[in-house]
Specification:
By secondary structure, the chain is of the alpha/beta class. It has nine helices and 16 strands. It catalyses: [L-4-(L-arginin-2-N-yl)aspartate](n) + H2O = [L-4-(L-arginin-2-N-yl)aspartate](n-1) + L-4-(L-arginin-2-N-yl)aspartate.
């Protein structure tokens, strides 16, 4: 279906949550999502396609968004690709100010919506209308062009320990992992970067969100931190070792951005913004890049 969404002044936001966000108390992350979507008057659609218990997931977020004063909140249940190409369901996304993807299995989520009309409409919502797209746990992992599909969580990185799949592509040249500190997933993210040094790895803790404003900058909200693993300058022997062996990884960069971190590109910096290292600036330029609609 074709739509003619109106252009807005918003750059569009991604709210990428590491899972386990507070849904019962102050709901700081969900409240920020609502704010970026336009406040209590916003139309918010909840996509539960990643979960096999969609109704239970909807009940949780219906209650949470209701507690935050959102009156126009809608469940978008999707169990097949036919659903994701249904004109009425696509129209719900076309009319939404905020689109939220719940947790579950990111492979299931992509199998249902990847490459469909609903997928295309989500890109239009973000890039043309300036909508806010949020995702938690599996919904977070699915946001990048390269998606972490599966992998072990041993204490050391290993050759062949992880595999990637195609994600939704709201941002590129990164891969996202969630429940990061709680499930000790640094080794898993290092394994990804060792195999794919052109990707920067982003690990997001539970009850923590990386918020990206397209073309401008980032902020971290919640209770934990965001870890960035950058292997673009590293030396590694991963091509020469056997499967399941631990590679040498020399000169890997790691950035830790705790809750409260806010960084903006220099052209749009707020007054008093701190000097930015070249490595951090490259990260911001990567994640905030305004990619064309695909």
């Amino acid at each position: 279906m074709k739509t003619t969404p109106h252009q807005t002044s918003s750059h569009g936001h991604l709210v990428i949550i590491g899972g386990g966000e507070d849904r019962k108390h102050d709901k700081a992350i969900l409240a920020r999502f609502v704010e970026l979507a336009g406040g209590p008057d916003a139309r918010i659609v909840v996509i539960t396609a990643a979960s096999t218990i969609a109704d239970d997931m909807w009940e949780i977020y219906d209650q949470a968004f209701g507690d935050l004063g959102v009156k126009q909140r809608f469940h978008l249940p999707l169990v097949s690709r036919q659903d994701a190409n249904d004109e009425a369901k696509v129209r719900m996304v076309a009319e939404a100010d905020g689109i939220f993807m719940t947790g579950g299995d990111q492979k299931r989520l992509l199998a249902i919506i990847g490459g469909t009309s609903l997928d295309a409409e989500m890109h239009t919502a973000l890039k043309v209308r300036g909508a806010c797209i949020g995702g938690t746990s599996a919904g977070a992992s699915a946001m990048s062009g390269h998606m972490l599909a599966q992998g072990k969580t041993d204490l050391l990185p290993q050759k062949g320990a992880v595999s990637l799949g195609a994600g939704l592509g709201f941002l590129h040249r990164v891969v996202i992992d969630q429940h990061f500190s709680e499930r000790q997933r640094l080794a898993r993210l290092l394994s990804v970067v060792a195999h794919n040094p052109y990707l920067q790895g982003i690990g997001i803790d539970e009850d923590t969100a990386l918020i990206i404003e397209r073309g401008r900058g980032i902020e971290v909200v919640g209770e934990g931190s965001v870890t960035v693993v950058d292997g673009r300058t590293m030396d590694t022997n991963i091509a020469d070792i056997r499967d399941h062996a631990t590679p040498e990884l020399i000169d890997v960069r790691l950035h830790l951005l705790p809750a409260g971190s806010r960084w903006y590109l220099p052209t749009d910096a707020e007054p008093g913004n701190r000097p930015m290292s070249p490595a951090l600036r490259e990260f911001l330029e990567t994640v905030t890049k305004r990619n064309p609609i695909s």
